[in-house]
Amino acid sequence: MKFLSVISLCFFLCLCVHRDLSGGSNSRGSDTIDEWGRLHPDAKRWPSSNGWKGFKNVADKVHEMGLKFGIHLMAGISTQAYDSNTPILDTKTGKAYEESGKTWHAKDIGIPERACKWMDNGFMALNVTSGAGKAFLRSLYELYISWGLDFVKLDCVFGEDLDFEEISYVSQTLKEIKPSIVFSLSPGVKATPNMAKVINGLVNTYRIAGDDWDKWSDVASHFDVARDFGAAKLIGAQGLNGKSWPDLDMLPFGWLTDPADNEGPHRLTNLNLEEQQSQMTLWCMAKSPIMYGGDLRNLDSWTKDGFASTDGARAWVATGNNGGQSPQGQDIYIAFFNLSDGGATISVKVDNLAKVLPGKKLRGLQGREVWSLKSVTLGDVLSAHVAPHGCALFVFDY
């Protein structure tokens, strides 16, 4: 499995599209909504969406390239729809939703006191227990899926913004309309294994940490989180129409922009080579979704050739409930990480490895260290000198 084949699977867009690029999360009244309060792309930025076509033409082009197409949505309802008090579409009748002799509008379902914590002027929760709330979500996802979606990331609905009712109803709706769609949740701030056990069967991926930028402190903070969710047996647990995966966030490699900066990608990642290798190795060993956070149009040679020419991403298959062994039983993966600011020699006794791989004859196995491509024979002790913030990833043929 080549790294680039993993990161290129999904062309991903964000639909919280402001016409005023300088507005950021505090924009109000700058979104493009239809008569039913549903967000659409701004036709000035996306000319192919003119005439309320949405991302249909973009999705068709992406599919022609052999890729999948996804969008990033905000949970609940937009503040602009609430302020405009747009009517709710009933897709069963094609008219405004009516119940108990009343025509329902956005202000009947929006909950201003439950604004999104990181986009408080942009979006708010809605009353999913009401028929009108369900009708709004149904109309929303029927519209977006008609564009040709393969992937939906729903934000402001997990972690500190947990909304089980909306997650549950959206999951049910997606399963009915397009069972093959991948359903992902965000953000991961204050997410816990116990919280994940409530929703993992309803989704495919879910963020378990805050935003990950190109700072070593951000990378290092993910080790304990990955350990906790792995220990809770949530990696590869039951999910929507299959399995679910804790998500450690995108990989901030290559050509990047800055947090909350409206300028396009303009600089290389601040992570050095060893730190990028450590992050990629942790993401693979923890079986996190692999999403590339840089500009694919401007890949530096190391990101493109270095990852694509190694088998580091093969470690993605080495975790879950397999104890470091691939599902086919052919490879055993072992990773060393040095989180300190100085070089360190890291060692493990083969007898200790045998405790997590019972019944396996380990001594004498032949393998290699993935990043250096050095050949290794497993004796009584596996040892490596690891650079500051670096790692060693071993694969042994069994």
UniProtKB/TrEMBL annotation:
SUPFAM superfamilies assigned to the protein according to its UniProt record, in alphabetical order: (Trans)glycosidases, Glycosyl hydrolase domain
InterPro entries named among the record's database cross-references: Aldolase_TIM, GH, Glyco_hydro_27, Glyco_hydro_b, Melibiase_C
Protein family (similarity comment): Belongs to the glycosyl hydrolase 27 family.
DNA-binding found in the keyword field: no
Presence of the UniProt keyword Hydrolase in the record: yes
Gene3D superfamilies cross-referenced by the UniProt entry: Aldolase class I, Golgi alpha-mannosidase II
Protein name: Alpha-galactosidase
Record-linked Pfam families: Melibiase_2 (PF16499), Melibiase_C (PF17801)
Assigned keywords, A-Z: Disulfide bond, Glycosidase, Hydrolase, Signal
Top-tier EC class: hydrolase
Enzymatic reactions: Hydrolysis of terminal, non-reducing alpha-D-galactose residues in alpha-D-galactosides, including galactose oligosaccharides, galactomannans and galactolipids
An example molecular function term from Gene Ontology annotations: alpha-galactosidase activity
Organism: Lupinus angustifolius (Narrow-leaved blue lupine)
EC id: 3.2.1.22
Extent of the signal sequence: 1-22
GO BP terms: carbohydrate metabolic process
Every Alpha galactosidase C-terminal domain range: 313-395
